[in-house]
């Protein structure tokens, strides 16, 4: 599968994997910065790094079953530790364990038909030429501050490692750079030259927007857009990036996990607004998914098994939904996602005469519908008041389906 941007929107759902030395600390991927951990102390994790439970094929299978069509692994995070055998540093998994986790990940995902993305941090707290700023763990270390540092040499290092990732691991479909911030900007990364190099090495690859210059798609993080995103009035590709519990890396004592039903709603909302959802897991220090992560992916898989056609290849609908409803659409099929279950009747403005058949998606059972007369007659004891002309009214069962998010599939009449 050569790199091409055409796969991104139809894919809609992806897996993000944050794994590294910080996973052993088990208290957030920014632990080294937050606690100002010096090199010698942080190297304790290097000495103990043993991802014996990192099972890339099992991870790929779980992603595929959850309906994920692409996956992104942290090839290098801010601490500078690489999950690939870089020739430009000895600070990597191959030297410590003999395992190239990027290679294992890429091979496993491709075997499951999943597009491969790599995350690469522009920061590097381990590299001797990366200039110390207030986010750097050594920002209060007087001896470290006195050492000469050269960002020009660091830019060469960046280009070298990106070249390794894009030439030694087969077709890479997506590159997730992270990130530009007030202390460091595009000139520090040589962003224009770096992006040009990426385009040269992998024409058609998708690159995100975190180099500090425009990329191929934008990456809202930890918030959920409620409308299609635009830049200067022009629609843009986008992908909402979310964690399970507020931490990207393994955080043992953080139990604020999002409910699977909420995550499914977030996925559908992304699709309804023309975007994708990239959902993160942070494997443990040994490389395994913790029980809550496994349970969450399994719950999403159960829903996607019955409802994936309301997500994959779908996008915003041409109709405006009523409250507590999200629409997605694929061709002549309109998917009605019910955020709350109504009592008997669901009124859909503007759809009268537009629908030839309706069913509950999870079991294919017919849902009857009719058009009310459109006359605003007065209330009486046994009949609901009329709806506005053009409203389609569906009659639903009293009991909601036992699924994370009920979905109706409406077959639109192309001639209406």
Automatic annotation (TrEMBL):
Residues 4-307 form the Glycoside hydrolase family 29 N-terminal domain. It is an enzyme of class 3 (hydrolase). SUPFAM superfamilies: (Trans)glycosidases. It holds the Pfam family Alpha_L_fucos. Its EC number is 3.2.1.51. It comes from the Bacteria. Gene3D superfamilies: Glycosidases. Keywords: Glycosidase, Hydrolase, Signal. InterPro entries: FUC_metazoa-typ (IPR016286), GH (IPR017853), Glyco_hydro_29 (IPR000933), Glyco_hydro_29_N (IPR057739). Signal peptide: none annotated. Alpha-L-fucosidase is responsible for hydrolyzing the alpha-1,6-linked fucose joined to the reducing-end N-acetylglucosamine of the carbohydrate moieties of glycoproteins. PANTHER family: ALPHA-L-FUCOSIDASE, ALPHA-L-FUCOSIDASE-RELATED. Belongs to the glycosyl hydrolase 29 family. This is alpha-L-fucosidase. It comes from Amycolatopsis halotolerans.
